[in-house]
Amino acid sequence: MALKYMNGTNQPAIFTHMTFTTIFVTLAIVISNCLILLVISWTKAFKNVNKWFLLSSTISDLLLGLFVTPFSIFNSLYNSWVFANDIFCCIEAYVAAALLIAGLYSLAWLQVDHYVAIRKPDRYKYVMSPTRSACWIGFVWLVSISFCMPPLFSLRRARYYREAFICIIEAKQQRAYFMTAGLLVAGPAISALFYTSFYMFTKAYKKQLKFYNQVFVDRASRPLNYRINLINSTIFIVCWLPWCLLRVHHAVVSRDKRASPEFHFYFLWLGISTAFIKFIVYVCKSKEFRDGLRESFNVHADNCDCPRCVPHHNIACADACNESTKFVQV
């Protein structure tokens, strides 16, 4: 009697290099973004970064690794769509699209935040107040979700992208809508990234930077965070560009001239990998972030044991010990 495997066929699960890639990327996304959330929550490493925008970017990437990429692992094992309900494919495609748009907009707002902080430092606290930042983040997620709302109600506008083992929005039957909505949604974010990033290469920025470093000593890490976000934004665009160009090439050439499935797989997963590459950038470029990582682990390991605060440089623990010492002396 023939055995029925997970995908309802006689095809057994086969572990390939593509399966390894999907597992590696998924684990990297989840672990790296959980560490970033830990640093944001337990340390002051991002004291010169707008945490509203950073949280939005981190959460969108984490959700991508929790609710989108894990299902590709099973699809790659059986080299087919293994879930019985096709509606699930539609939902996965729309969730992925919404999270990617939210991530792009969060990067753009982070760059705008740094731009305002350095160019107009006297007005920064008013222009980018916590309340306004929260409102902008709400707008970002509203736009991301609304982009997928019209086709979502039909539940028939997604397809299984078998070359990359993931579901994507089917734009063929609604090409006019997606071209228009895509320009209206992605256009402002990309324009904001280019405009605020170009300022870093002007003479006005260099002049303003000298004044900024002399007057706002407590915000000395802001220019570095500005450059780090420029690197993350550039990586995001560069990594997604090959897949976007491949999709255009796929649509305009004849079937016999199309690229091999391996190109589709690796180009798409190169774009998805931007969800954890920013962690590598922070580790390599930001000493504050590296100190924040050490501090986060020391807080949980030391449990504020005073004799061990100094050798571990645990700031939070040392502060707590100092407070308790003052209390005893009084």
From TrEMBL:
The keyword Cell membrane applies. It comes from the Eukaryota. SUPFAM superfamilies: Family A G protein-coupled receptor-like (SSF81321). Pfam families: 7tm_1. GO terms for molecular function: G protein-coupled receptor activity. Residues 32-282 form the G-protein coupled receptors family 1 profile domain. Signal peptide: none annotated. Keywords: Cell membrane, G-protein coupled receptor, Membrane, Receptor, Transducer, Transmembrane, Transmembrane helix. GO terms for cellular component: plasma membrane. InterPro entries: GPCR_Rhodpsn, GPCR_Rhodpsn_7TM. It is a multi-pass membrane protein. The chain crosses the membrane at residues 20-40, 52-73, 93-112, 133-153, 176-201, 224-243, 263-284. It is found in: Cell membrane. This is G-protein coupled receptors family 1 profile domain-containing protein. The lineage of its organism: Eukaryota, Metazoa, Spiralia, Lophotrochozoa, Mollusca.
